[in-house]
Amino acid sequence: MPTDLLFRADAYERECSATVLDVNERGGIVLDRTVFYAQGGGQPGDKGVIEVGAQPIVIATTVYDQADKGIVVHVPAEGQAQAAAGSTVTAKLDWGTRFARMRIHTALHLLSCVLAYPVTGGAIGEGEGRLDFDIPDAGLDKEELTAKLQALVDRDAKVGQRWITDEELAGNPGLVKTMSVKPPMGSGKVRLVEIEGIDLQPCGGTHVARTSEIGKVRVTAIEKKGKQNRRVRIGLV
Q1: In what side-by-side order are the strands of the sheet with 119-124?
Q2: Lowest CB count within 10 Å: 6, 22, 110, 161, which one?
Q3: Model-level pTM?
């Protein structure tokens, strides 16, 4: 049974009650529903705790099951107690870490608008992130890019989502900016993240509700990664 991904409907939901469906041979916990984001698309898996009665199980990361990508596995830190299948638990996010990632992830979408080039890679961390661009000529200026990026943040644009079919996405290839990470297709529908008046692209990650929640952000480094590849790093201020 696929895991009910509550974060897709509301990325601000910090905890939920759930039932343990399974505990795999490595101690990974499978719940019927979760607020934890599973690693993917350059965004790390969430961490936090799963409370079983008064006993919290510290979750180090969250991933998709290798055999079934519809199932989310919560990976306990080393030395944690084990949950029992059938038990009712409460899953609680490390909210500070998640929210910082939401802010950076949304800022990276804006960066892909400031630099309208194909994206060859990317990664999201706590309070920092980066995108790699296929840029034939360099000449990028950190201060100029920072000013353009902050101007988009300050527009306080609404960030929302909508769904289209696999066929609709295939008919609109221009929506896909990433060359190395393909949008999650195969289930019949694809989630689009829309920053009102600014950006629209497929994405399965978590985002803030308005761009102003990103706060102050700046371009911290521009690195050459090959003949036509430039890595642009940003950080929250």
Answers
A1: 119-124, 128-134, 229-236, 217-224
A2: 161
A3: 0.91
